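User: I'm preparing a small set of examples for a lab meeting where we compare how different chains pack in three dimensions. I only have the primary sequence for this one, and I'd like the structure in token form so I can line it up with the others. Please keep the answer compact; I'll paste it straight into my notes.
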Amino acid sequence: MAGPAPRGRPAAAPPGLLPLLLLLLSAAAIIPRGDGQNLVTEDVTVVEGDVATISCRVKNSDDSVIQLLNPNRQTIYFRDFRPLKDSRFQLVNFSNSELRVSLTNVSISDEGRYFCQLYTDPPQEIYTTITVLVPPRNLVIDIQKEIAVEGEEIELNCTAMASRPATTIRWFKGNKELTGKSEVEQWSDMYTVTSQLLLKVGREDDGVPVICLVDHPAVKDLQTQRYLEVMYKPQVRVSQNYPVQGLTREGEPLELTCAAFGKPQPTDMRWLRVDDEMPQHVVVSGSNLLISNLNKTDNGTYRCEASNAVGKSHADYMLFVYDSRAGEEGAIRSVDHAVVGGVVAVVVFAMLCLLIILGRYFARHKGTYFTHEAKGADDAADADTAIINAEGGQNNSEEKKEYFI
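Assistant: Understood. Below is the structure token output for the 405-residue chain.
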């Protein structure tokens, strides 16, 4: 057994322990959190499985030693030496002013504070935080009923499993955004989010996609969708093939066509006459109804009915048969009315012109009469004399004119 070392001389440390002792002594000299006036670093956010890069930079380098430690205060790199036996840490750059290290295949266990230390007097320390994002593991839409009937309210649930942080779920029907109700469950460090959507469906929703879209910082454009399948009763429409336009007149034919659309496609379609029996001369062929020779006994409402597994619908056509010359007489009447209207307009215009001319004529002569009457009254001593002067004034004037001549 070796004896104690001579007094005054320290015992020599084994060669393999020297770097470790230096690290422990230097760590003991470091204060837990300095002002870090010469150290610069940034927080790092990384998606699980990607690469995180940690940078410890010195603003005013004086050749001091830079060291990087993990959240457990284990030294990852001391200058360009890596004591930690984790090959995922790799040196990217080392100089007097920077120590840059990459961490590959990042997992949640790597999250936390990483410390940059600078051996100055006094020592300095600053930390950077690694945040690990985890995108949803799976995105699934569950629908209450695979096939819905028009007017029903169905329930859809979209689940985003095992994400970090908790994801936000958005709903769309076609291009229209809808509002759902979300619930969040936490399992350890992971979150599962389920969003419920209640949707009342109509025939216009058949074949329309319902989209569940994830809003999460770790992933873009993550979505899934389900197409709605909606059953609805028939929609019926009756069209007149002949006559294409114009009146339905006696002796002429009438052809009607019935079109029905539904889901499932209507399998039963029939014609009937509302509140009366179908005339014997009416021919029904599938969706067509034909009356070859119309008469007024055919007047009434004709109905086309169609049905499928969801329900029954109908459309009506009201038939009114006119006289055979109804269209011609109507055209003659319209021409006669136009001619009469034109004549009346001309007569009214002529009468208005005549009234204007007569009015102007009477107004002018009435003024002349009053002037003559006034002349007889100017020189008369009394009323009787004024009347006599007015009546004979003209003759006297002429006599005086002859006398002077």
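A couple of notes for your slides: The chain is about 20% helix and 40% strand. The CA atoms of residues 348 and 354 lie 10 Å apart.

User: Perfect, thanks.
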